[in-house]
Write a structure and sequence with these properties.
With about 600 residues, the chain is an alpha/beta fold. Helices cover about 35% and strands about 25% of the residues.
Length: about 600
Amino acid sequence: MCGIIGYFGKRKASEILVDGLRRMEYRGYDSAGVACLHDGVLGVVKNPGKIKGLREKVDASELAPIREAMLGMGHTRWATHGEPNEMNAHPHLDASGHFVMVHNGIIENYKEIKAGLAQHGITCVSDTDSEALVQLIAYCYQGNLEKAVTEALKKVKGTYGILVMTDHEPEKLVAARCGSPIVIGLGKDETLIASDASAIIPHTRDAMYLEDYDMAVITADGVQMFDLQHAPISREVTEMDWDAGAAEKGDYAHFMLKEMFAQPAAIRNAIRGRLDLTMGTALLSGLDLSPRDAAQINRVLVIGCGTSMNAGMVGEYAIEEMAGIPAEVEQAAEFRYRNPIVSPQDLVIAISQSGETADTLAAVREAKHKGAIVAGLCNVVGSTIARETGRGVYLHAGPEIGVASTKAFTCQVAVMLMMALKLARGRRMPRHEGEELCRGIERLPELVEKVLAQSDAIKIVAEKYADKENAFFIGRGYLFPVAMEGALKLKEISYIHAEGYHAAELKHGPIALLQENTPIIALLNNIPGKEKTIGNAEECKARKAPVIAVVSEGDEATAEGFDDRIVVPDCPPCIAAVPTAVALQLLAYHIAAARSCEIDQPRNLAKSVTVE
């Protein structure tokens, strides 16, 4: 969601801060600002709207700190408390104007903090929860900034990733986290702090990741780490595995388009070295499951939100069908609140592209508390879920900048299929079937390339339906979660109301909404249940709803009688989920482009949802 960037070094801070904010634009935001400290003077520039507007204000600023400072912080805000205006934008100053802070997360008890401060004559001027924290830090200050931060955070309920400065100590920057990511980049004669590696990767690859309740004090002498009792701690320095070029669009019109066309390479990276054709199994050492451990698993729980949950549904079907292990998909936001039944023989797989999704992280902690085996499936190395699970599989899909997930989804499905294969070979699947599935997974990049080659043909279909305001996606079996994902992509980036349904569910209510301007996208691939889905599509057609038939290559007969067709490669049901999803990504993209929507940064959406 919100983005944080900080700098302490020997270069002009404001330039690095604004560029870092630009690299985090994809996270979603509605205002931005920077604060710099120079010669004991603070300077703040804020702007509602896009980074471009902030850059213009910074370039035009006559404030000495903005023009000269080598110490500062920046922030992109995604509004939670208060409208997206300049007053509510970060960085926030305290009432005295001597302390400044940026904050990601939610201060749940901010009203109580504000009320307590008011008793001491301190009044907050913004509508935000964040301002209460900087006012509290200033109130706690007694000559040492990090101790003031420590005392204030002991009174806070909620989540935070913060940077704090004061002109009382002009050579110091303090960072702290609880539930909201902070990474510290260690460069030559400079230190960068951010909520997202993309902001600092052009400057350094050496980084430390703060854990919950960590605090870092950055000075000219380097970085010191403490806990909230102010006891010294240490964190490992790791190398960030990022390609800085992935954060640029290149010749593509949008990041989403670039990332869709990067899917063949991303899937190859996700499966490389992980398939053993000789034994017909998957090599997933990160799961840290011996054959005996795997054989003792009684149930698999997959937890995730949004796109990750849809990928988990494909995995659920594969695990049950192939391994014969009962599997369930749980909405992560509900998992810990409904007191789920979890045992030590359960394997809980937490799926999160960012590895920072707040609801999924809370579910991970609940599952661990209940004694389950917990594994993470993440794309970001060093992310919180990856660290807290201690076992799992990285996607290796590379940075995903577009808010609407594409390559992360297809890589998640590919990895879930490999997980199902590993569990199945340890149970009842014979080697020859394992070899066949290995070859099917190996074909995924080639199958996706075939779909991407049809982008122009799908664009023609998309433009016919760009003026519609409602749509339904229907499918069965492995294609039911693909229908859900297709509807999610369309609503995310085109703002068309779209719903994904199991094909049999349509007549249990939603069919009442069908009319001539309500297209149906029917997934009619060659999989079990196809004939019944065709019947459901024909019921829609009989009610004058236009039908876009997604059919397997060579199956011309199925497409006859429907309004439009999209052709995908003919492949086994579990494999078909990936190329079919790519076809629906292209459909959503071209519809959104025809509607002139802001595809990479849809309104109200954030890439990484780090609050519940």
